[in-house]
Design a protein that fits this description.
Blueprint: H1 3-10, E1 31-34, E2 37-39, H2 42-52, E3 59-63, H3 69-78, E4 83-88, H4 91-101, E5 109-113, E6 127-132, H5 141-144, E7 147-157, E8 160-166, E9 178-185
InterPro entries: PCMT, SAM-dependent_MTases_sf
Protein name: Protein-L-isoaspartate O-methyltransferase
GO molecular function, one term: protein-L-isoaspartate (D-aspartate) O-methyltransferase activity
């Protein structure tokens, strides 16, 4: 069992789903969580987490944190010496995800309401890892700029999963020091 399988066993999806969706928690399908948003299917979440390569102690940004499930999984991967910030634009989902997270002891996790017109949390950058669980039409430079040196972002762009790696020794704003690889086709709600 790898680290991703381990954390997915420790942090059950059921806790993060609305009551009417909990019977579907074990199915490998997306589940609606209200407000036009979904909790991604477990296989997709596992694929993204493996591409992200979170290690203990990392500072991680979870963009489009939705139900909070991926935020909790990221927190388990970073451990107590890490820091995970989830950002969500729907106030009701922020409240629900905070309530679900309160069933775990993870003081190194913070779920925030997104600031209108701002992607991520630039004031707290740089991040070691950024996970984006909503589809962009083009790669958002604002999020690339929040990656630290040797940082990795996993994001669906125009239907394709991208892994964006800022090379060691580079700093934000230096696009030539970013490597992008593609990792299959996926469907997500739009990044707004």
């Amino acid at each position: 069992m790898d680290a991703v399988e381990r954390v997915m066993t420790l942090i059950p999806r059921t806790v993060f789903l609305p009551p009417d969706q909990r019977p579907h928690a074990q199915q490998d399908t997306p589940c609606p969580i209200g407000h036009g948003q979904t909790n991604s299917q477990p296989r997709t979440v596992a694929d993204m987490l493996r591409l992200l390569g979170v290690r203990p102690g990392h500072r991680v940004l979870d963009v489009g944190s939705g139900s909070g499930w991926t935020t909790a999984l990221l927190a388990e991967l970073t451990g107590r010496n890490g820091q995970v910030t989830g950002v969500e634009r729907v106030p009701e989902l922020v409240e629900a995800s905070r309530a679900a997270l309160s069933t775990f002891t993870m003081p190194w996790v913070d779920i925030r309401l997104a600031t209108g017109g701002v992607l991520g949390v630039p004031g707290s950058a740089p991040y070691d890892r950024i996970l984006v669980s909503a589809q962009a039409q083009t790669l958002p430079q604002a999020l690339v700029d929040q990656l630290g040196a040797d940082g990795v972002m996993v994001i669906p762009v125009a239907g394709e999963m991208l892994r964006v790696h800022r090379l060691p020794g580079s700093s934000s704003g230096q696009d030539t020091d970013v490597q992008i690889s593609t990792h299959g086709r996926y469907r997500f709600v739009p990044l707004l």
